[in-house]
Structure formats: C-alpha cells, structure tokens
Amino acid sequence: MEEYAREPCPWRIVDDCGGAFTMGAIGGSVFQAIRGFRNAPQGVNRRLLGSWSAIRSRAPIIGGNFAVWGGLFSTIDCSLVHIRKKEDPWNSITSGALTGAILAVRNGTGAMVGSAIIGGVLLALIEGMGILFTRYSSEQFRPIHPLEDPTQLGQTPPPGASGSAFSGSAPQYQ
C-alpha cells in the first residue's frame, strides 16, 4: 500500500494539509465557476466575470475547509500511529470518525455522533476498496508454480512415454 511509503508523521501532516487545500481549491474553482456562470446576468462577458468573481471569493475558502479537514485527519492518524505503534486501516477509520466528530462539535452531540459515523463509514469504504484493489492487483504478480503453468496444459505426452512424470524421460516442449 502506498501509505507506508509516505513521509514521516510530522511532515505528513503538512503534506496532507497542503494537498487537501490544493484539492479543495481546484474542485471549488470548478464548482464556483459553474455557479458564477449560471447566476450571472445574460451575456458571455458578464457570465465569465461572474464565474471569475465567484472563483476568487469562494475557492480559497473551500480550499481552507479542505485543509482543516486534511490537517486534523493527519494529526489524529499520526497520533494513533504513535499510540498504537502500528499502521493499519483501523487508524484511518478511527481518524475519519474522530475528525468528523471534532468538526461537528459546535453543532451538538447528535451532530457529532452522526458526523463520526459518516466519517468512519466513509473511511472504512475507502480503506476496504484499497485493500480489495491491492489484493486483486497482487494476483497478477503471484509466481506460477511450474506444474501449474497454463502454457503446458494442452500438450500430449511425447511418443513412447508411459504418461507418468517419473518415466525417466525429460519432458519435451515445443
């Protein structure tokens, strides 16, 4: 898995925070461009100016919100790695749940529980898909035992061989 080849924990937080900001700013720019274009008065120039205005005003805020989420998630993940002394999917799932709960703390206990469940389930799905893809892709790199070689399945024994693998003659491959 790629998460074990990442930066060490103090730098991982900064890296994830910056990556989350970038992702939020780019994604926010796309959505704000569409929103600004649709809500602007008629005329191509006015619509393009509306898009640009919406991008300038909202995309940095969306990027900042993503950065807060990414930084908090990575901080909790690194703390769990330090406390548990191992890196596994449970750290990410727990980090997602705790991040959701902490970010919803101003909305009350019910919102915290709901956000924690959503964050934990979302990260469990992401981790589960990562494990499935890793297992699926690792099958293609599994070594093939010579007796299980699929290229040898359709061959008939050479003439004069008794059909036994222990007949004393070496197998003949074409």
| Total E-strand runs | 0
Low-confidence stretches are none
Q: Report how far the terminal alpha carbons are from each other.
A: 40 Å
The largest pleated sheet is described as: none
Average pLDDT taken over every residue: 85
| Helix/strand order, N-terminal first | HHHH
* Helical fraction: 55-70%
Model description:
- The protein is extended.
- The chain is an all-alpha fold and 174 residues long.
- It is built from four helices and no strands.
- The longest helix has 41 residues, at 44-84.
- The chain has helices spanning 9-39, 44-84, 89-103, 109-138.
Which key terms come to mind for this protein?
mainly alpha, 67% helix, single chain, 174 residues
Summarize the structure.
This protein is mostly helical and 174 residues long.
Question: What is the secondary structure topology, with strand pairs?
Answer:
Blueprint: H1 9-39, H2 44-84, H3 89-103, H4 109-138
Helix pairs in contact: 1-2, 2-3, 3-4
